[in-house]
Specification:
Length: 351
């Protein structure tokens, strides 16, 4: 069994073991009053059994299913049709976000100098842009400057600190939005996929971080930083790390990367990242399309919030990558195998 599948199975087992009894108490605003009345009047006995486990000693799904069945019997057919429409919209969300999100290579490139910001962007953008298996995005293509580009403004040292603060603030806001939204979905809806589980939506969001970590490892298997001074002591390394984290990429010191020859491990990690991205989208589609008891209006708000977080993270990453391009000064007319300038320099390893 592959490590990715083993990790997923373990997380699923832990989710069953830690199932919550906080469902069926609150709902999304549109149907909150209606569903609360159904619980109180039509499904009171089933809900009591759910809270006390008096009808089953099995999994949380067995505790929750009688309540779900009772509620589905109590709601009208038009309401069920609207729930189905909401499920379709939510099920499309992972695919939509994959078109709006970043690739693992782009995020991994930022992680070389700003790993904390890169980690926050990975959490705040819960879906990864799909790449084809055995196809790898070259750094030289990411850093190549496009003709007619809009130049980035350069700020003073105080302005750079302000830009770094705004980036961190937006990244934390995106993460908080995704975490709160995942928790809200778990508490105010139920799922046909994992009934009785309250954090399967958070699980979907955080599984994307594994993909970004795989992408970062893949990048490091293909490149090596030459500009790092390994003679620094721990205090100097910590100071250097903090300075990089709070400084926009366009204003950082030069960095040189060398491309190393491809290896079988690199090809394997690249393939695992591509396949894992597809599996993550499939898992998110299954989880989100199985949501019950949410209106189309509330579903659209959920989708909009996910999109806002993804676009916010994408905007920050694109600004940082644009800064790397400005620093590297990689022109289309230059030799892609030997590029050297004041920012990031990408050179081909002769070995």
């Amino acid at each position: 069994m592959s490590p990715l599948i083993s990790a997923f199975v373990l997380l699923a087992q832990l989710s069953f073991a830690c199932a919550s009894k906080d469902q069926f108490k609150h709902w999304f605003p549109d149907w909150n009053a209606t569903l609360s009345n159904i619980i109180a009047q039509d499904c009171a006995q089933q809900y009591h059994d759910y809270l006390t486990n008096s009808t089953s000693s099995g999994t949380s799904a067995e505790w929750a299913m009688p309540v779900i069945d009772c509620m589905l019997d109590a709601v009208s057919e038009p309401t069920k049709e609207r729930m189905s429409s909401a499920a379709v919209v939510l099920g499309l969300t992972p695919t939509i976000l994959s078109f709006l999100g970043s690739t693992t290579t782009e995020t991994a490139l930022l992680a070389i100098r700003r790993p904390l910001l890169s980690f926050l962007l990975a959490i705040g953008s819960p879906s990864v842009s799909v790449s084809r298996a055995f196809e790898y995005q070259e750094l030289i293509e990411i850093l190549r400057i496009r003709e007619g580009r809009v130049p980035l403004p350069r700020f003073s040292s105080g302005g750079n600190i302000l830009v770094g603060f705004v980036e961190a603030l937006l990244a934390f806001a995106a993460v908080a939005n995704v975490v709160e939204l995942g928790h809200r979905l778990g508490m105010r809806t139920v799922s046909t996929f994992l009934s009785g589980i309250t954090f399967d939506y958070l699980l979907w969001s955080f599984l994307a971080v594994i993909l970004y970590l795989l992408g970062s490892l893949t990048l490091r298997l293909r490149t090596r930083e030459l500009s790092r001074d390994r003679r620094r002591n721990l205090t100097q390394k910590l100071t250097y790390w903090i300075a990089n984290e709070v400084t926009p990429s366009i204003c950082q010191n030069p960095m040189m990367l060398t491309r190393t020859p491809e290896s079988y491990v690199f090809l394997l990690m690249s393939w695992l990242t591509a396949v894992g991205t597809v599996l993550h989208i499939v898992y998110g589609t299954v989880v989100l399309s199985g949501i019950l008891f949410i209106s189309i209006t509330d579903a659209l708000i959920v989708v909009a919030r996910y999109i806002v977080s993804t676009l916010c993270c994408r905007m920050i990453l694109m600004y940082e990558l644009a800064g790397l391009r400005e620093a590297s000064q990689v022109q289309d007319s230059m030799d892609a195998d030997a590029v050297e300038d004041i920012g990031i320099s990408v050179v081909k390893n002769s070995s």
